[in-house]
Amino acid sequence: MEKSARRISAAPLLLLFLLCSLHSAFAGHDYGQALSKSILFFEAQRSGFLPHNQRVTWRSNSGLNDGKASGVDLVGGYYDAGDNVKFGLPMAFTVTMMSWSIIEYGKQMAASGELHNAMEAIKWGTDYFIKAHPEPNVLYGEVGDGNTDHYCWQRPEDMTTDRRAYRIDPSNPGSDLAGETAAAMAAASIVFRHSNPAYSRELLNHAYQLFDFADKYRGKYDSSITVAQKYYRSVSGYNDELLWAAAWLYQASNNQYYLNYLAANGDALGGTGWGMTEFGWDVKYAGVQTLVAKFLMQGRAGPHATVFQRYQQKAEYFMCGCVGKGSRNIQKTPGGLIFRQRWNNLQFVTSASFLATVYSDYLSSARKSLQCSAGNVSPSELFSFAKSQVDYILGDNLRATSYMVGYGNNYPQQVHHRSSDPNLLTGAIVGGPDAYDNFADHRDNYEQTEPATYNNAPLLGILARLGGGHGGYNQLLPGNDMKK
């Protein structure tokens, strides 16, 4: 009887303990700290000669002969993930998304003290792109070979694998690669417009040339750089990148040519036709549609309002799918996380959450709501969705696991990453859990424990927005890019 009484009295205590543990895990996040760590991760991914102010001190110089055999200097740039290859397509998408983060939320980043570090992260990429684009119609799109690289577990400082350089040109085109790199340089030109005008103009000139190259000599880059097919196959083709580049060039230059291009090619290239449930380094349609919807809400569509409304309808198709009120909703795990694929799923979570964040602010500035097939969605509801995804990543899940390395008390310890093993890869967003919220923290489980630069890049903007708030800032005012 006494034992039974003890069991009965212990039950409420156990329940209280569990409730307190859950409250502690879900008690709110330090988004400023998460932003700082997320930016720091990019310093761990650097290739080339590292600067004197390098903060990730367990890294050193690497890839110092990159491009030498081809007679071009390709030292620098970023390793994409846990290996030592420099893949141009995901690197360019990373830079585009970091730039978009600053364009929208530079004010909040400045308040957090992280704007300079974020701009340095972008410049590390764009400095490399300038080197990789030595002629108007030539772009180097890969250094290293994934097959030989993946046979060895070597730090980049010690690598002995093939460092061959691969390029696209008129005889071997790559409109997707050239288009994404044009988008990256155009977006980055906005970031540096006030702080470094000469550099901004240089980036924009490269963007002009790369867009012309992509549009004139059409073809998929992985048909020219075939070694990329196993790792970054261009499944969606190049039509989305042509529109994506045109949208960023219009945003950067205000040149009507690019606005007209978006209108004239919206149907033929799929911008007005494809309703998407993903956004990432391969498929850019949802991003294009979000940008064009912004132009429309800004009153910048000119005579193309009817066409741009069709872009906007597809942007809102994506947003409605995110919040579960669309005609085709995005799959989620039982814990509420967006789920797209088994390998590196969190890349789609951060990119979708970024689009939802910026679109919620566009709607707020326009004093509009989202019209979905299952009911209206307010801007605050759309933003709450994005916040829920970020909070899940930071630990608000049933495992109470943070999928940002070094954030919180329980995060992945065995990251699939050559250069960091056995060091702490602070700020890295790993691949994340499976369709049922399960996660196996093993170094050979690359599907779940390998990080990537394009996982982190969209997160910069969301974390800045979450940490710094909105402050009544009108995201639609023309000419307010980077205004602080």
Automatic annotation (TrEMBL):
Gene3D superfamilies assigned to the protein according to its UniProt record, in alphabetical order: 1.50.10.10
Which residues are the active-site ones?
Answer: H416, D441, E450
What is the organism field in this record?
Answer: Linum tenue
- Substrates-to-products reaction catalysed: Endohydrolysis of (1->4)-beta-D-glucosidic linkages in cellulose, lichenin and cereal beta-D-glucans
InterPro entries linked: 6-hairpin_glycosidase_sf, 6hp_glycosidase-like_sf, Glyco_hydro_9, Glyco_hydro_9_Asp/Glu_AS, Glyco_hydro_9_His_AS
Q: Name one GO molecular function term.
A: cellulase activity
Enzyme Commission no: 3.2.1.4
Keywords assigned by UniProt? Carbohydrate metabolism, Cellulose degradation, Glycosidase, Hydrolase, Polysaccharide degradation, Signal
**The keyword Oxidoreductase belongs to this UniProt entry's keyword annotation:** no
Q: What is this protein called?
A: Endoglucanase
The signal peptide here is 1-27
**Could you state one GO biological process linked to this protein?**
cellulose catabolic process
Q: Which family does it belong to?
A: Belongs to the glycosyl hydrolase 9 (cellulase E) family.
List, for all copies, the residue spans of the domain called Glycoside hydrolase family. 31-463
